[in-house]
Amino acid sequence: MQIQTTQKPFKVGMTHRTDMHTLTAEEINFEIDMCIGCDRCMRACPVPLSSQVTIADLNHATNSEEITPIVARFTDECVMCGSCVPVCPVDNHRDLLMLSLKQRLGISWDGQVDLSKAMRHLPAGWDVSLVLRCLREQTIFRDAQLVPDNYLLHFVATSEMQTLSAGTELMREGDFGRDIFFILDGQCEVFSQGTDQKSLPLAVLRRGEYIGEQGMLTGQQRSVTVRAAQDRTIVLKVPEQVMQRLMEVVPAVQDFFVQLSSARAVENMLAHLELFAGIATEDMRALATQATIRRFERDEQLFSEERKAQPVRETFHLLLDGFVKVARKTGRPQHPERIIAYRQRGDYFVGGLDMLGDRRAVTVTAITRVTVAEITRAQLKSLLTRYPAFKERIQERVRLYQEANTAAHSAVFEPFDRMQLEQALVNTSSDAEARSGLHALVSDGVVEGTEVLVIDLDKCIHCNECEEACERRHGQSRMNREGMVVGNMSIVTACRQCQDPVCMLCSRAGIARKPSGEVYITESCIGCGICAERCPYDNISIVSLTEDGDEAQPPSWQRFSRFFSKGFGKERGRKMLPMAQTPAEPGPLQPFANNGLENLRKKIAIKCDLCAGYNNQACVQACPTGAAIRVNPVTFFGSTEDILSRKAR
Length: 649
What we know:
- The chain is of the alpha+beta class.
- Helix content is about 30%, strand content about 20%.
- The protein has a 5-stranded mixed sheet with strand order 1-10-17-12-15. A 4-stranded antiparallel sheet has the order 2-9-4-7. Strands 3-8-5-6 form a 4-stranded antiparallel sheet, with no helix packed on it.
- Helix 10 (about 240-250) packs across helix 11, helix 11 (about 250-270) packs across helix 12 and helix 13 packs across helix 14.
- It is globular.
- The model is unreliable at about 5-10, about 405-430, about 550-575, about 580-600 and about 645-649 (pLDDT under 50).
- Keywords: 4Fe-4S, Electron transport, Iron, Iron-sulfur, Metal-binding, Transport.
- InterPro entries: 4Fe4S_Fe-S-bd, 4Fe4S_Fe_S_CS, cNMP-bd_dom, cNMP-bd_dom_sf, RmlC-like_jellyroll, RnfB_subfamily.
- It comes from Dictyobacter formicarum.
- This is Cyclic nucleotide-binding protein.
């Protein structure tokens, strides 16, 4: 299986900043000579340890071999958020200087390992060497040169060893979760819910196997339920951040997971498509392994209806993850493109045709991050020969394409039937507003959400009680009731708990997701602003917890968005804001555990987390007229076809 991506290769620990370049030795010396030692960058730095490091310490370490332990630790904890850059009075590139220091010090996993926590959770009769031997039974860890013992020790030290009794649930179908589980001893049973709501046994996992990679890679809901099949089943529960770190330092591990996970997803989806009915499992698996997996970022085009005589016309496209926009050119200067549908995981295109719609040529563009499996006609050839029924179904698609191609060459994209065409012209004005609303729902990412706060404008009395209730509960309002309007509904500006949250890229586990879907800020957050920078909809904000009287203006992505302007900079003093309830015992990635630095936290991110930890949502509960409600956007607004088939109010 081939994996293709449009993303640039990234440096270790910098998945959020792929465009940085390394300074030369001459540039480093110039930057340090320009520094005036004012320490503004250190005061702006959100890393708590920055309070114990001066800029003089960093400058000395950058151009000498003398690096103190505290500077080395600070360098490793630096998240490359860029807060230091805009506050520098001489315009130094302090982030690039930190990059050079990080590269000199190398990967932290090369250093000494603290196994004290892991030792406390070792099962009776187990030691570290036995844990390593069991991990080496995993396919991805068998090569000790590729994954050294020291890496595995760090891997274990930052994960959680669990000893389970029979029937204990590791994961549940439908829940959100990004942890991955490596089975070190015992057995686990895999189930899926059938149409009769009963659990159907799928597989038994044994020592040397793992489960949970799909959730880790995609952030999607768990597709199966997994339980321990016998007492004293021992698993290593690995958080997403730990797995991400390993994949950064050993890219081959990421390639392994992506290829295997993608092949499984392709095989599973093909088996559920009517087009591939009757094909043997082994042939389906072989086809899945031959598929090319391509990844597209937002707004990238998968293919266009204008492309003719290109391989796309003989290619089967299967959406593995994400949302795409399906559109067709109109030929009109004012409205050159018309959105006709959106498609998601499990949908497919044959030869550039929208087979789930009108079966004609379309232009398809990514709305979210999208993963697509591409299977060429040559790869399908053996199936066409061996399965006559499959060949007939493909020939039907070819015939449909030829008819659509004739229409495309004649530049006719409307119905040929005169009565249908006249009716379409009558409905043009009424459909215009509906299409505008659809475009807003798609382009602004509303369809990505799982929980969207909407206000019925027919019921709203503009009392602002929803915002004020949010502020009373959380100390800062995490919403703005004035947002995009579709029909008589206002889409409130607040986190929508996206299906694929791009904000969840935090090396410190400062943002997480509950199994029920709420994305929340954890006690590990330091307010670096990386999640706020990555959120495409400005629904995460950074607030200060201390007085910053002499600190220069922070970068724009660290300020409140225009929707959160009320109250920015007004929260002064050391005020801790309420967060979602977290486990009593800090997890292995909690950076503040037992080091006394929790009191030095300077900033924190805030976002709507659906009032996680409370028994109601403040905004909905406080609305006196019942205008504010939480909805699933696809269920509430309907599919794109539903929206386009009715007049907007």
